[in-house]
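Methods: holo model generation. Sequences were used as deposited, without trimming of termini or removal of tags, and paired with ligand SMILES retrieved from the corresponding compound records. Each pair was processed once, and we did not select among multiple samples. The sequence and zinc ion SMILES for this entry were:
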Amino acid sequence: MKYIDPHIHMVSRTTDDYQRMAEAGCVAVTEPAFWAGYDRSSAQGFYDYFRLLTRFEPKRAAEYGIDHYTWICINPKEAENLGLAREVIEIIPEFLTEDTVLGVGEIGLNKNTRNELTILEEQIGIADRHDQLILVHTPHLEDKRKGTRITLDAIKRNGNIDPGRVLIDHVEEHTVKMVLDEGFWAGMTLYPNSKCTVQRAVDIIETYGTERLWVNSAGDWGHSDPMTVPKTAMELKRRGHGPEMFETIAFRNPLTFLSQCPKCKVIDA
Ligand SMILES: [Zn+2]
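and the model returned the structure below.
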């Protein structure tokens, strides 16, 4: 069994996690830029974070035979400060040319504010001008459905973005259908006991099928579990699904989406 975890924040995880993931069959991870649990005091703080993502983390992953890719952006939580956000936006393009950067992400909305939307639109513009894939964070809890709708509309308003090159992450039962119906890819981020669990994800797969759908652990600095992707294989098996369903959801689908960027070198074998 091999798999890709296409959304995990390895800068917050230990080498023990890399070890366990490798033993469970993980061959590649992709790591979106995110809120690190604290607000950075300057654009220089982001510059250093982007260097960590592009220079150091791939070497750490390689020690365990795992390919490490990343996505660059300013996250929605820190986008509330427009001045700082625009300073960060200025430095994003120089990182988009790095060998392991697959696109712009995870952009999106946190509280659905006007400032967040402004910076989201500006970063959709960067992805458009630099021909980048996009990975989108959607808000949690009561803001999710509305925030997802606003985000999909913002991407469509740009006019040049192919929805087949956009992954909308953190989908749940009440947002997955609109995302898939409008041609986007959908990601389910699996948490141990909050947000979308492994059991709920398998319910969603059984309801909507496997087309343009993937799972990821979203492992970060909070209570999360980098093993939720292989645990999905166990839940699928428990319900009587064959191994090809896990292969589709956790390897073939991420590979198909990510390979739209020629820098993705994960071997399909
Ligand atoms: Zn994330």
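The chain has one domain: 3-257.
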